């Protein structure tokens, strides 16, 4: 995509540079102007499609002679920024409509950046597998009994196979299942301690007073008040 805009930039700036050196060599400019005039309403025209792309990403119309053409470096930076902003906004808007992403914090940086789960993982196989499991939970692709029940057209029992008491969903697995109580205490107590020791008094009671908030904390903590690199690494591990 960016290469296309670079090509358009070079195509449009070349005749201007040529004309700055000589008034006789204007063939390229004539070709561009003729193509724009002839194909301005041709949906299959290169120039028509380019104009649509420029408008789509809120980029200046460099075919307009009244608009100063920026330097090549500035143009590349502008193109990269606008394309990233466009897709970041689109991804966030779409993600808000997907219920399976309810645990995912949507205040991420931009579409070009990786999620903090991957940024904080150590480079060894065990930690990568842990991060993969967490990402599957965040994106709604980790299969629990409730999912199997839904995808089997309600033929599979959604009840937790460990405690046989409640429907097994991610909330149940991480915060409620009594069979996992000891494992939960082992990992959850240090997380709570990290939050309370590294944030203002009352933060825990204010932000994490329900199971959903606690689950979001465990799975995706990067946009909370206690956000520091050290805490992220500890909570994400």
Q: How do you describe this structure in short?
A:
Helix content is 59%, strand content 0%. With 237 residues, the chain is mainly α.
Word description of this protein:
This protein has helices at residues 2-21, 27-39, 46-56, 72-96, 116-120, 125-138, 145-151, 170-176, 181-197, 203-207, 211-219, 229-236. Helix 1 (2-21) crosses helix 2 (27-39), helix 1 (2-21) runs antiparallel to helix 4 (72-96) and helix 8 (170-176) packs across helix 11 (211-219). The model is unreliable at 15-25 and 225-232 (pLDDT under 50). With 237 residues, the chain is an all-alpha fold. The protein contains twelve helices and no strands.
List strands and helices in order, with pairings.
Blueprint: H1 2-21, H2 27-39, H3 46-56, H4 72-96, H5 116-120, H6 125-138, H7 145-151, H8 170-176, H9 181-197, H10 203-207, H11 211-219, H12 229-236
Helix pairs in contact: 1-2, 1-4, 8-11
The rounded Rg comes to 27 Å
Q: Tell me the β content.
A: under 5%
Q: What's the number of extended β-strand segments?
A: 0
Flag low-confidence runs.
15-25, 225-232
Helix and strand pattern? HHHHHHHHHHHH
Class derived from helix and strand content = mainly alpha
Distance between the termini: 36 Å
Nearest-integer average pLDDT = 79
**Largest sheet composition:** none
Give the helix level as a range of percent. 55-70%
- Tell me the number of helical segments per DSSP (H or I, 4 or more residues long): 12
Annotation keywords:
237 residues, mainly alpha, 12 helices, elongated, Reverse transcriptase zinc-binding domain-containing protein
